[in-house]
Design goal:
- The protein has 3 helices and 7 strands; from the N terminus they run βββαβαβαββ.
- It is α+β, with helices and mostly antiparallel strands and about 120 residues long.
- The strands form 2 sheets. A 4-stranded mixed β-sheet has the order 4-5-7-6, sandwiched between helices. Strands 1-2-3 form a 3-stranded antiparallel β-sheet, with no helix packed on it.
């Protein structure tokens, strides 16, 4: 048996470290796919986004766990969040799609170095 043996009990994943101790590995949260936004809702969200200032700036750290956590907190509080790409400007299309997947949100628009995301508030 190698040092990298894995066991997968319910809802968690454990991995043996080189010293033989068990270490917990975080699993990604599985979210239900969001329904598509209709055109009238998309137009309304774009209009609201025009008046917003960017809440978050994506810098040198990229899509770090801390940035994704901040994005989740902002979406939970505001439901419509505008971010600005300070770094990684050439990769903004791929990064914004990845960010939408990881936060369970819709990418409302991507214009220049600014992206807007929406996640409906739970009732």
């Amino acid at each position: 048996m190698s040092n990298r043996a894995k066991a997968e009990p319910r809802g968690a994943q454990f991995e043996l470290s080189p010293t033989g101790a068990l270490a917990t590995v975080a699993l990604p949260v599985q979210r239900e796919p969001l329904p598509r936004l209709d055109n009238s809702t998309l137009r309304r969200l774009k209009a609201e986004a025009q008046r917003l200032e960017p809440m978050l700036k994506l810098g040198k750290a990229g899509l770090s766990a801390a940035f994704i956590q901040s994005m989740n907190e902002a979406l939970a509080k505001h439901s419509l969040v505008k971010i600005k790409f300070v770094e990684f400007k050439k990769e903004r299309k791929e990064l914004s799609a990845q960010l939408a997947r990881e936060t369970g949100s819709f990418q409302v628009m991507l214009v220049g170095n600014v992206a807007v995301f929406h996640r409906p508030q739970p009732n």
